[in-house]
Amino acid sequence: MWQALYEELKDKGFMVVAVAQESRGAEHARPWIEQAKSSYWQLIDVEHRLEDLYNLVNVPQAIWIDEQGRIARPPETAGSTDHFRRMDLATRTMTPQDQAERLAARQAYLDAVRAWVATGAHALPGDEARAALPKVTPEIAEARARFRLGLWLRANGRAAEGDLQLAEASRLHPESWSLWRQAADLDEVGKASGPEFWERVQALGDRPYYPPAKL
Amino acid sequence: MTKILTPTSEHNVAAHDGLWMSPVDAERVTGWTLKPEGMCRADLCVPLPASALAPNEVDLEAFWKKLGGPVVASEARDVWALGAPAEERNVALEGLDAPDFTLPDLDGVPRSLSQLRGRKVFLATWASW
What we know:
The structure holds two protein chains of two kinds.
Chain A: H1 3-9, E1 14-21, H2 26-36, E2 41-45, H3 49-54, E3 61-65, E4 71-77, H4 96-119, H5 126-131, H6 138-155, H7 159-172, H8 177-187, H9 195-202
Parallel strand pairs in A: 1-2
Antiparallel strand pairs in A: 3-4
Helix pairs in contact in A: 6-7, 7-8
Chain B: E1 2-5, E2 10-13, E3 20-21, H1 23-30, E4 33-35, E5 38-41, E6 44-46, E7 53-54, E8 57-59, H2 60-67, E9 71-73, E10 79-82, H3 86-94, E11 102-104, E12 110-112, E13 120-126
């Protein structure tokens, strides 16, 4: 997904780290990774540890990190848009205009990454970066612990019990699409983008599924 | 044996009545050491109520809750997970030093964010689902 960007910028002190939030494990992610023919790091995160550390709620989200290891931009949607919500579900297609807008938004996001690498543009001052961080609540912290417990139980032959923990994690952290969709996928591949997913997206109403990066 | 999961590790501990265990095991699981002042890590100590202490034993559940961390257990209370306290995560993020992590690539080779110091890093998630 990021290979062209990486190729273009890798000699300018730039690195891409793509982290699969993939509780089914490395072999499940392998076909996508091999198809991407990427030369940046492709890491496997079975436990969604990155989402715990950075308080993430969906994929794809990106964090920009500078040469000193400082957060230059906090977690935000990595170029995806909500145009998919208007697609024709029977044919799974978007109107030409939506397709064009979606592409343009992604292009603008990639251009912002290019500008950051070239000149440091779009890096937020510390107080702005701090203000834009989503807060971890005690409910979110408990949701992470229950998610971890649920995955362990599932992996150790206690699927029904594990699923109860995963469901409770989702209930505690309803803003996390990742917790719900991962649990749905573990239940059955495809369920994460099935009818229940669409119902949840519809229930958002005017709220975004992918809040756009504030560039 | 009781199984205890932390955000990055997994332990088997001889615990009873919940998470009562020896101070040695408590330290193995959490990295906090029992001292007369309480549970200590580096130069920080968290005092424990008398109800969380017994001769050569400590109630890890009570300690972890005092820290503000979530403690959850399976129905049979044989598997437990201690989560990172919300405040610990917030303080780390607000410091703006990107939290370090080590995760494997497809071949199982461990990679750490800190290996990339000196470069701009675009850290992005994705999933098959």
